[in-house]
């Protein structure tokens, strides 16, 4: 499925900019590291120090807020697709 293209002049985001992404997945030892590796593929300068982690109240899920350096709409779209299609991810905001 192809995403509609938004002309640069209609985008609400100025590039480059720091852009927070929230990723929620099942609490597993490898979840955070796996997500970091995936994000680095799209933002090579990303480092784990830019992550906020919060477990759910029951400890079943882990929420990661990652601040990436967004350089284009294409980069963000590709990253969202990669994250949301990953088997460990429940949803991406």
TrEMBL record:
Domain of life of the organism encoding this protein: Bacteria
Family as reported in the entry's similarity comment: Belongs to the UPF0250 family.
PANTHER family (UniProt xref): UPF0250 PROTEIN YBED (PTHR38036)
Lineage: Bacteria, Pseudomonadati, Pseudomonadota, Betaproteobacteria, Burkholderiales
Gene3D superfamilies the UniProt entry points to: 3.30.70.260
Protein's name in the database: UPF0250 protein HNO84_19530
Organism: Herbaspirillum robiniae
Signal peptide: none
HAMAP family xref list: UPF0250
Pfam families per the UniProt record, alphabetical: DUF493
């Amino acid at each position: 499925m192809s995403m509609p293209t938004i002309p640069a002049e209609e985008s609400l985001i100025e590039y480059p900019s720091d852009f927070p992404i929230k990723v929620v997945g099942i609490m597993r030892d490898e979840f955070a590291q796996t997500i970091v590796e995936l994000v680095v593929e799209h933002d090579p300068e990303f480092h784990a120090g830019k992550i906020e982690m919060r477990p759910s109240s029951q400890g079943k899920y882990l929420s990661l807020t990652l601040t990436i350096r967004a350089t284009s709409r294409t980069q963000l779209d590709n990253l969202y697709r990669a994250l949301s299609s990953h088997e460990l991810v429940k949803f991406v905001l």
